[in-house]
Amino acid sequence: MPSYNTPSSSSTTIINANTNIVRHRQHTSTDADIAIGASTSTYEIVEEELDHDNDTQSIGRRWKDIMSDNSAVINTFIAGGLAGAASRTVVSPLERLKIILQVQASSSSLASSGQAYGGVWESLGRMWKNEGWRGFMKGNGINVVRILPYSALQFTSYGAFKSILGSWSGEPTLSTPLRLTAGAGAGIVAVAATYPLDLVRARLSVATSGMSIKSSAGGFTAEDAKLGMVGMTKKVYRTEGGLRGLYRGCWATAVGVAPYVSLNFYIYESLKNVILPSDLPKTITEPELIMRKLSCGALAGATSLIFTHPFDVLRRKLQVAGMASMAPQYNGAIDCIKWIIRKEGFWKGMYRGLVPNLIKVTPSIAVSFYTFETVRDLLAAMGEE
């Protein structure tokens, strides 16, 4: 007799099997959905990363394009800064001595007390004996800090002014007045940007020279001689009217620097046309070429200085006007000029410190122009590779 349980059991088995198949299909479907979702998410992440990489590359490309388009300006700025730093470091002892000779009083009291500095070599010997190598380099740190942006801005501004004036005038080659104007503008821009550093450097050079006398009228004391760049800046700012004190004598400096820079660039470029003509023989040796380049800068610096040295003296006198032991209080630049001429005469007073200044400027400007052109050409060559 057939059993009816078998069909029922088979049906149950088939139903269970179907149920398992359905469950398996559901599970498989779920896994597939998860896989698809994961793949989609991964794709979106990768897409975002690619977009980010593209953005990064785009920013990098734009920055590279900007650098490439302005490579000449950037190279000029870097070369100008390094040129200034190299030139001032070479002549640091003479730079400090020049400042001391310019600002010391010509009274007999200083001479009798042994404080007055005399001749160049005698004074350098005294500086070395009293302070050693540190005395020679005193103030050079702040001088380099000042001259880096000063020289960079000067060279860069000169190129910019030449370009602007060339576009304005339509002249393929700038005339002498326009070239002198470009140099004057470059000098004024550089002075205005870095003058407080120059004033502080002058104060540090004199404060540590052994001529500082404690005075109730405001001269520097022995403690002031220990101040660094930051300390001296704070002292001037706190005791001499803030920014007004830090910019004491700025306009007189600008008036003096503008023609100096003008003549410097103009004479240098004019001498290059004579000493380094474009048809220079290829047989010329490298040492001779270097000497020709240095000669152009040296002659340009010395010639310019003879015309503008009185403005440099005036600048230093005004910068140390707060030191009562060194100079009286002046009511501006005109009053200072009158006082110098009345007390010391024009040539002796306004050309005080000319000899050490000439000895300093001649190699300084030579090294400056040579370093500038060498570094600029090197950077240009590296950019073409």
Description:
This protein is mainly alpha-helical and 385 residues long. Helices cover 79% and strands 0% of the residues. The protein is built from 14 helices and no strands. Helix 6 runs antiparallel to helix 7 and helix 7 packs across helix 8. It starts with a helix and ends with a helix. 36% of the residues are buried. Mean pLDDT is 76; it is low at 1-30, 34-42, 107-114 and 213-218.
Taking the alpha carbons of the first and last residues, their distance comes to: 102 Å
The percentage of residues in β strands lies in under 5%
Quaternary state of the chains: single chain
Instruction: Let me know the largest β-sheet.
Output: none
Radius of gyration: 36 Å
Query: What number is the mean pLDDT?
Result: 76
Number of helices: 14
Order of helices and strands: HHHHHHHHHHHHHH
The percent of residues in helical segments reads over 70%
Shape: globular
Secondary-structure-based class equals mainly alpha
Tell me the total number of β-strands.
Answer: 0
Question: Which parts are unreliable, with pLDDT below 50 for 5 consecutive residues or more?
Answer: 1-30, 34-42, 107-114, 213-218
